Predict the 3D structure of the following.
Amino acid sequence: MRDDFSQSVKDLLGNRVGWKCSNPNCRKPTRGAGVEKTNIINIGVAAHITAASKGGPRYDENITVQERKSFENGIWLCQSCSKLIDSDEIRYTVDKLKRWKDISEQIAVLELEDVTVLKNDKDAELIRFYVQCFDRPAFRDRICMEGRMEDFDKAIEDTIIALNTGVLRTRDGSILKKSEGKSIIASPVWREKLDTICDMLVALRKRLKIAKKEGAYSTYGEGEVMYCFYDRNLEEWFDFTREEILKILSSVCEEIGIHGLYFPREPHKW
Ligand SMILES: [Zn+2]
């Protein structure tokens, strides 16, 4: 009579070690996708620490049937390690197997935490780079203070490219810094915010194009060119949209604990 584990005990044993072999020197994955969509390949074994039946390896007659079938008496191993531990009882003692189980459960948790920390660090690094991209007159000054509208448009285009590719070009076309595009941001919330910012930047460029066609603004002055918008609402829209963009960006900065950017650079005094 074998005191086998129930399915739920087997699942718990595997789950708690991330379905990897609990021999710390092995750590082989034991589960993967089968060819059929619903199929799972399993090469793992819920092994008994003290044998399931009399005469088996490390059999302990002093424990109850319930204890023998319990989670405490099991260890998740790959097939070769499960054969290994049963082939040498002196080498693979009850204490040793319990230590393996303990260590593997701890490693499984550490692996989870590690990945999260790494991803957050990477995200924060990318956000810092993007903030740098926005720290320029095109996003910090009111539209009435802009120099050439072509430069304004180019600055927005460069920022869209920087968000999408991680490459920030300066106004003379040289590459200022290379990072990575927003698509690799791990946090879905941050990625969505950056996507929204990108859409708003595209809208700014489109609106500027229409404004130019319609002659919504005129230039005056020699050398230091100034702009005059005939449409006050449009002028306000350009400022309001950039203010909103920086607000969204700054909400991400706040979560990372770095300074955000504000529009306009200096609070306007009326
Ligand atoms: Zn193994």
Remarks:
- The longest strand covers residues 44-48.
- The pocket of zinc ion is lined by residues 21, 23, 26, 28, 77-78, 80-81 (CB under 6 Å).
- The mean pLDDT is 89.
- The first helix runs from residue 7 to 15.
